[in-house]
Amino acid sequence: MLPDLERLIQLQDIESRAAVASKAIAEAPGRIAALDALLQAATAALAAAKQALATNQTTRRSIDNDLIAAQQRQNKYKEQIMAVKTNEQLHAMQHQIKAVDDEIGQHEERVLVSMMEVDEINATIKKAEAALKAAQAKVAAERSAIETDVKHQHTVVAECNAAREKTVAALENKGVIDTFQRIAKVRGTAVARAEG
């Protein structure tokens, strides 16, 4: 029985190595999915920054159109001021010109704010592009490492299966393997070292 016990200990070692390798193979898709999520987050951040730039440009065009319209009204009022005949009309025209001047000032201020936002957005885009490039490099390296590890683990599983068949064939008492498998199925480990 002692040689069979030694073979069962070897078999337990083989089963343990195979279980570790199988677990690593099973976890690989989850690790790859996490890498893909990292890459998607970096891509989404870049897309959001580019969308913010597009929105800012659309808003800026709208502000520019409003500014041009206000400047045209101001020019029209300045031309009409020459045609007024009474002080009352003059004061009314001056009041309208002042209101348009205030409106032009507000539009020009909005243009400046928009220009400052564009600078911030461009800086954000550059950071997002750098982060995306770094994420792509990291994902490529880690994905390659995971795939290499999976290949290695498949080799380990194949070696363990071959060693298992060889060890099982060498057992003198074939009933021991049934007991081993039953215990391993329930407990996970069929043979354990008892020390002390």
Model description:
It is a single chain. With 196 residues, the protein is mainly α. 90% of the residues lie in helices and 0% in strands. The protein has three helices and no strands. The longest helix has 84 residues. It starts with a helix and ends in a 9-residue tail after the last helix.
Oligomeric state of the chains?
A: single chain
| C-alpha Rg (nearest Å) | 39 Å
Proportion of helical residues: over 70%
Q: Give the mean pLDDT.
A: 88
**What is the strand content?**
under 5%
Uncertain parts: none
Question: How far is the first residue's CA from the last residue's CA?
Answer: 22 Å
How many extended strands? 0
What is the overall number of helices?
3
Q: Globular, elongated, flat, extended or rod-shaped: what is the shape?
A: rod-shaped
Descriptive keywords:
single chain; 196 residues; mainly alpha; 3 helices; 90% helix; rod-shaped
Summary, kept brief:
By secondary structure, this protein is mainly α. The protein has helices spanning 2-80, 87-170, 175-187. It is rod-shaped.
What's the structural blueprint in terms of helices and strands?
Blueprint: H1 2-80, H2 87-170, H3 175-187
